[in-house]
# Entry
Amino acid sequence: MTWDPAQYLKFADHRLRPALDLLARIDLDAPRVIFDLGCGAGNVTALLAERWPEARVVGVDSSLEMLARAKGAHPNVEWVRADLADWAPDQPCDLIFSNAALHWLDDHESLFKRLFDHLGPGGALAVQMPRNHRAPSHRCLADTAESGPWAEALREILRPAPVAEAAVYHALLCGLGAVDPDIWETEYLHALTGANPVLEWTRGTALRPLLDALPPDHAEGFLAAYAACVAHAYPRRADGVTPFPFRRLFMVASARIHSKDTGNLPRRHART
Ligand SMILES: C[S@@+](CC[C@H](N)C(=O)[O-])C[C@H]1O[C@@H](n2cnc3c(N)ncnc32)[C@H](O)[C@@H]1O
# Structure
């Protein structure tokens, strides 16, 4: 799948807010080793480096296009190309951060176990994933994909509900030994403007793998049918605003500190 950083960053302000809300719930004062998984164009990775200037901060992504953009904008951060499906860090982590990326991967039970195992004592896993797969924007994707000459080509690519309910992740993280996982959901109301802004939004994300899988004539037909569906599902108000509700799931889970883990731990402050 190819990414287009410029298309993705068209809604940079809207997409940044959940990353900031996640960042605000991380209670580490002095993490020394931080990985940002699915770092994309690197704008959030740069914020991690700004908040913890003493830390080694590494952005990890599989997209050459996104990494090129990240490297160009933030040459002082470390960037690594890897597939998160089999990624492992080169040292234990104090913070594994991931904003809007892990929903692209399957089998969250083994993925979260693997990531949690990479934390050092007292380290934290902080993740945000969209959980809007039943929203009209995604129902339109599924309905359009299933009802055209492209249906066969798209059957394997549609991912109906990649993110489970909050309680599923809570049980999973508690089972891994996380201390009191902090999990919550938020539905943002993005006030978008422009001709068919929900189409523009999904063009930067969920539409990409489907368009990538189609020959140009089918891609064009698919896009036109999807555009009509979302324009109808998200009508523009008289004042030019298209409200776009968007639900996201957040979690911050910390690894236990055992009595043998003395010294050299990431310090944490009390949460309010
Ligand atoms: C929606 S963007 C989020 C970018 C960034 N975290 C942010 O908040 O702006 C998702 C990113 O996840 C990356 N990604 C998706 N699947 C991946 C995988 N299996 N391995 C590595 N990166 C992946 C994509 O390349 C893309 O850059």
